[in-house]
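User: I'm putting together notes for a lab meeting next week and I want to include a structural view of one of the chains we've been expressing. I don't have a solved structure, so I'd like a prediction I can at least talk through. The sequence is below, exactly as it appears in our construct file.
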Amino acid sequence: MQINLVGTTLTLLVTLAALVLAGYFALQRRVFLAVVSIGCFLVLFNPTAAMSAELCKPIKYADGDTFNFKRGSELVRVRLAGFDAPEVGQPFSRRATDHLRMLTLGGARCDCYKADRYGRSVCTVRTLQGANVAPLMLAAGYGCIDPRFENEADPVDRAQARAALEDAQRAGHQPLAEKRAHVGARSRSGGRLQRRGTAGHGARAPSRPNHGHGAGGARCPGRDQAGAKQRRMINQ
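Assistant: Thanks for the context. Below is the predicted structure for the 236-residue chain, given as structure tokens.
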């Protein structure tokens, strides 16, 4: 496991700042504010997870929630825990992938704890500064919370993801629904997969996507159609 000196130093400095702030409030007998300071720090930054995860530098991105990195001579396929992003062939998949690439451009920290049925390592991925990538993707509108994946994350990360999704909905950050007439969206018509504006007369683009619907979670639109193509790309 590699240790990033800059990231570790930043973690320690932020931790110290949070403790100083909490101590100040405690001395002022503002216990509630002291507790809130520590609580917000743990929820937003989660320094323990940031320091325990391994340094990972993506070398290939499959979509907005899957990438590869090298661990020595081993190639590791990562699926980000806790959310689902548009897959290859779905509207705005490329934008989601680009956003993930931007967040992890200089590397990231991967806390990998199991393998999924496709052999990918399921990991909580954080930026080098310690921010959880999944809520950042959700806040930008590039994903949804899938009940099948949500329980993989720990309670703190789940709360962050829910809050990010609610913020995205309030801000209207739902790019999957933008300019759907120009997307060439796919739908099923007569049992065959057809593209808008070709043989599938009357085929309609996906309506405004279901991004969580509160506590219930949601599937990203068109997941079944693109699933086989995504699995082929992952296994290349």
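A couple of points you could mention at the meeting. Helices lie at 5-27, 31-44, 47-52, 93-103, 133-139, 147-150, 155-171, 223-234. The chain has eight helices and eight strands.

User: Perfect, that's what I needed.
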